[in-house]
Amino acid sequence: xxxxxxxxxxxxxxxxxxxxxxxGLPAVSQATPILKYSIDGGTPITVTGSSAGTVTSNGTLxxxxxxxxxxxxxxxxSSQNPNFDLSSVSLTNGGSAISTINVWLTDTGFYSQHQFLxxxxxxxxxxxxxxxxxFWSYANGNNQPFNTSTPLSSSGVLTATSFQxxxxxxxxxxxLYSLTLHALFTLGSGSQVTSTDQNIKxxxxxPEPSDLGMMGLGLLLVGMLGLRFRQAKYRRDC
Length: 238
Prior knowledge:
Elements: H1 2-23, E1 34-39, E2 45-48, E3 54-61, E4 64-71, E5 83-93, E6 99-111, E7 116-127, E8 131-140, E9 150-154, E10 162-172, E11 176-187, E12 192-202, H2 209-237
């Protein structure tokens, strides 16, 4: 009888651990990426993306033709393992004066699981002579959009017609955090930025909630099977 009691206590403990794992998973609401851009210092234009994790904007403003695309969770990456991306394609200055283009992409609701994040910020692209490009990436531990409190990388001014680079950083956030990408382009008259891409990625993947949930269920099943085995053994011994 004593062995059965011990077994039942162990099974109860396993079930409690499983429940703790499941309950401990964060209830993260699905935020959407937000794109913002400004041409020649004008009023910033903001475009909110879809729940699918994508946002786009293209057109012509102040003689500048542009096409921007942002991708975030769940289209690519996840709340636990971000893969956050901004591409700028076919930026062309059709005017006679120099034009400047600022573009930002932000998203909130990333979750660190109280673990250190190993974030890789990268960029690359091509541009015509007479253009320059510059890239920044940021995080914010208060989960605020467009917040630049934690700089991750800065490219400096890029003048080459072809360029690429990357920078890694280790960050620790207690809870939810946001990510922001920023690019600045300067286009001379008739010049063009053919294509650029910048990205933030967690290079050491954290376990997804589904994985933790399966582990919790596994603990629960192991506890229940152990209980049934001990009960059957106890009956035989009796």
